[in-house]
């Protein structure tokens, strides 16, 4: 059976619902955290290409400062997605770079955080062995859900 392009779990809707109740800055932090967890998949394959890392750093800078320059956000996102296109589809590096591109795009549109998390989970799935990929994906999505809950709680406190 051919695997889906994107990882899918039973938690997807629950995470999406939680994200809709989360403030914009918290979503950006969460998206950057999700993307950074899988960034080693990209950097191990392409150690001299910093475009995905720069996208995550741009996302964190926006979350920290609130300074938004569309050209910077868009440029960082497009650069990370270009890096993804250069990595073979279906490989962890591809989805890790996509996660970074989506994470920084969260500064512009909060819903990109959900895509960043799904791409991160897809990178984890693609890095796992065939007999472990479903369980690895579920573990990643469970971490993402718990982490978003924790970030929400800490932002309110």
Question: Secondary-structure map with pairings?
Answer:
Elements: H1 12-20, H2 24-45, H3 51-65, H4 70-86, H5 92-105, H6 112-127, H7 133-156
Helix pairs in contact: 1-7, 2-3, 2-5, 2-6, 2-7, 3-4, 3-5, 4-5, 5-6, 6-7
Question: What do these coordinates show?
Answer:
With 157 residues, this protein is an all-alpha fold. It has one domain. Helix content is 75%, strand content 0%. The protein has seven helices and no strands. Helix 2 runs antiparallel to helix 5 (92-105), helix 5 (92-105) packs antiparallel against helix 6 and helix 6 (112-127) runs antiparallel to helix 7. 46% of the residues are buried.
Brief description of this entry?
The protein is mostly helical and 157 residues long. It is built from seven helices and no strands. The mean pLDDT is 94.
Number of strands: 0
Q: SSE string, helix = H, strand = E? A: HHHHHHH
How helix-rich are the residues, as a percent range? over 70%
Mean pLDDT: 94
Number of separate domains = 1
Q: What is the radius of gyration computed over CA atoms, rounded to a whole number of angstroms?
A: 15 Å
Give the number of helices. Answer: 7
Describe the oligomeric state of these chains in a short phrase: single chain
Euclidean distance between termini CA atoms: 46 Å
The largest pleated sheet is described as:
none
Shape: globular
Strand residue content: under 5%
Helix/strand/pairing category: mainly alpha
Contiguous low-pLDDT stretches (5 residues minimum) are: none
């Amino acid at each position: 059976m051919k695997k889906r392009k994107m990882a899918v779990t039973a938690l997807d809707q629950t995470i999406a619902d939680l994200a809709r109740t989360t403030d914009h800055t918290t979503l950006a932090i969460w998206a950057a955290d999700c993307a950074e967890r899988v960034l080693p998949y990209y950097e191990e394959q392409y150690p001299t290409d910093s475009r995905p890392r720069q996208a995550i750093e741009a996302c964190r800078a926006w979350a920290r400062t609130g300074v938004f320059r569309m050209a910077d956000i868009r440029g960082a996102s497009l650069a990370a997605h270009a890096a993804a296109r250069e990595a073979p589809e279906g490989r962890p590096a591809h989805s890790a770079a996509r996660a970074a591109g989506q994470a920084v795009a969260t500064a512009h549109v909060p819903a990109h955080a959900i895509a960043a998390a799904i791409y991160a989970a897809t990178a984890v799935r693609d890095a796992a062995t065939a007999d472990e990929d479903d369980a690895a994906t579920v573990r990643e999505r469970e971490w993402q859900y718990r982490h978003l809950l924790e970030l929400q709680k800490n932002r309110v406190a």
